[in-house]
DNA sequence: CAGCTTGAAGTTACCGATAACGCTAAAGTG
DNA sequence: CACTTTAGCGTTATCGGTAACTTCAAGCTG
């Protein structure tokens, strides 16, 4: 690999002069600059970012840690993050935690070791607190995205889960639903908690009874949905609609119902958060509180970089992005007489 | 930041001993090892990967450069790549080229500067040759994925585009279609060329006439599809089916047809490559030659790492992954009398 | 013309790790 | 007992840069 010393020797200048040319610092005569530039091209020189990082104590790398990049919400978020990072001259390191604390911890270790300038991450759960504290201990700036963690004071970009849930429930109630179940994530995840809060508030606001039996805390795998549906169908009175915790849960529920010959929205309406993309091809198109995924990533990275570069106010900033109610075809008026076969 | 010297001082040993403990090299007495380990924990020491990279001339970072991570094919590919990289102890740097040579070139520059150990990339087009040669010049191993570039001899993981196109056309012909158009990428992209080859071969094999007027080379934006549809509808005889170059083009075509009140598959059948995910919700579900996206990424990274670590045979390896014909609802028998309004 | 300023470089000391080499003391060998 | 091994660890150079300081010559001033 060719180094600044090779360039220096070839151009009959010192290494420092080469460094000055590269970084446009100090004063250099046009003649010297031209000569150095010429030699650099001739030798196909490319600066070594690692060496620079070592001395500058800055890598210009930020890390994005999501639960799963194949979830369309995070895919789009990642795209927004990458675009923003690139626009600011940063590189993006990607990781998937799969909602797994162990995996998340391993990534944090890697992140610390890599000395990235900052981290944008979706905490796996409230128990991610330990990892976030590790980041704090090491002075690595980070922005929590989508979810936040009680007891951790930090920059955050989150959605309006409570408001979204209320809008969705209101919509169902307006359609005539009176028995609405919630199948969401476990309450050690902030979004799941808040969506539950919104669900509960909306029921109250609409004069409906809140009943714990109609609330399911579950994982995001198909198996989890299968189990939830099993128990859900045994409920009395039978729910006519479900608020799903996220897009994947909505999908799992739908599949499970289909397998059992229960139609959506005919026999069971489903509402949820976010979308699965390709709005005009999905059928049924979920009625959803859609969050601006791209902006989550874009804004998250922007806030992170402001923090990194000391351009942010000292106090942590918390940005709540609004969601939009999209009426899809996964909801309809409840059927008067419904039989689960 | 705490360094091995801090550890060394605190533990009353030399820095080298600390290094030996970290890397499990050389001989260390159990007592010393324990003492060093203890101090490391106490001081929350995390090794500096940059410093290590500099001396070892190895970053343990690989770069993934795709055209657009939000294309579901690349999303899944990226997931496969990240999993494989992680499994081998590598970090993954992500980039989107947007099929843009300038952007691609900028990324390659960044990649070279970062001294990543290797690159997995989808070349924007045949003109990416210049960038790939730059990689070669600098001795950075890379694996071309999905597309390859004439004149560049390198490891590659590609799909069976010719075979896929033939399967798709055969399917259309079996349904009774006789006038089939091709709306694909421009021929400076290998997959577009090969899909065209398969299209042509399949027409011949089925005794159908190949006519250049029915072949459209175009970009991947909605606007491009709109234009293609415009011209396509003016053709005589009128096509009853289209082979789309990829999933996004199929989507664009479908949208354009819908806007014009032309139904798929009723009035126009569409076949394509890859999918848009969520197979059971997409309607119409495209009849497609689906490629194993996850494996593309997984295998690509594995080949890359074998190359990086010198475990690969000297000659470049080219792996062709098979696709699978998925019969969807975007195809049906052609309507006898069709009128484009 | 001495003395000062200033532009344009060069020198030196790190940044945080690892490898090669070398040293010392204890254990083994004949 | 003299001599070789070997376990265990330290010293030093190095990776490719950059910051801070120094040097040197030319130009300007009074």
UniProtKB/TrEMBL annotation, chains A, B:
Q: Which InterPro entries match?
A: HTH_LacI, Lambda_DNA-bd_dom_sf, Peripla_BP/Lac1_sug-bd_dom, Peripla_BP_I
Tell whether Repressor is among the UniProt keywords.
Answer: yes
Q: Which CDD domains match?
A: HTH_LacI
Example GO molecular function? DNA-binding transcription factor activity
Q: Which keywords does UniProt give here? A: DNA-binding, Repressor, Transcription, Transcription regulation
Q: What is the top-level taxon of the source organism?
A: Bacteria
What Gene3D superfamilies does its record include?
A: 3.40.50.2300, lambda repressor-like DNA-binding domains (1.10.260.40)
One Pfam family of this protein, by short name?
LacI
Q: Which residues form the HTH lacI-type domain?
A: 2-56
This chain belongs to which protein, by name? Catabolite control protein A
- In which organism is this protein found? Paenibacillus cellulosilyticus
């Amino acid at each position: 690999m060719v180094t600044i010393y090779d360039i220096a020797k070839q151009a009959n200048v010192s290494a420092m002069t080469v460094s000055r040319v590269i970084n446009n610092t100090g004063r250099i005569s046009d003649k010297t600059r031209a000569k150095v530039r010429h030699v650099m091209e001739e030798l196909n020189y490319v600066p070594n970012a690692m060496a620079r990082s070592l001395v500058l104590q800055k890598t210009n790398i930020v890390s994005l840690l999501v639960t799963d990049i194949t979830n369309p919400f995070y895919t789009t978020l990642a795209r927004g993050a990458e675009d923003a990072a690139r626009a600011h001259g940063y590189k993006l390191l990607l990781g998937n935690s799969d909602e797994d604390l162990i995996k998340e911890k391993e990534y944090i270790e890697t992140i610390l070791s890599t000395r990235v300038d900052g981290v944008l991450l979706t905490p796996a759960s409230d128990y991610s607190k330990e990892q976030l504290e590790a980041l704090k201990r090491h002075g690595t700036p980070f922005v929590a995205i989508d979810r936040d963690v009680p007891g951790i004071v930090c920059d955050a970009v989150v959605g309006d889960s409570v408001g979204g849930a209320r809008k969705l429930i209101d919509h169902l109630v307006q359609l005539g639903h009176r028995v609405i179940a919630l199948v969401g994530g476990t309450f050690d995840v902030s979004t799941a908690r808040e969506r539950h809060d919104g669900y509960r508030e909306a029921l109250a606001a609409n004069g409906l009874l809140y009943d714990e039996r109609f609330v399911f805390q579950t994982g995001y795998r198909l198996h989890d949905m299968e189990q939830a549906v099993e128990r859900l169908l045994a409920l009395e009175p039978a729910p006519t609609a479900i608020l799903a915790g996220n897009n994947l849960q909505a999908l799992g529920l739908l599949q499970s119902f289909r397998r059992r010959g229960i139609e959506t929205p005919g026999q069971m309406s489903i509402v949820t958060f976010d979308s699965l993309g390709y709005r005009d091809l999905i059928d049924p198109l979920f009625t959803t509180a859609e969050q601006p995924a791209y902006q989550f990533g874009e804004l998250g990275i922007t806030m992170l970089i402001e923090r990194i570069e000391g351009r942010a106010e000292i106090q942590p900033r918390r940005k709540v992005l609004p969601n939009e109610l999209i009426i899809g075809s996964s909801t309809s008026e409840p059927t008067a007489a419904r039989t689960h076969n």
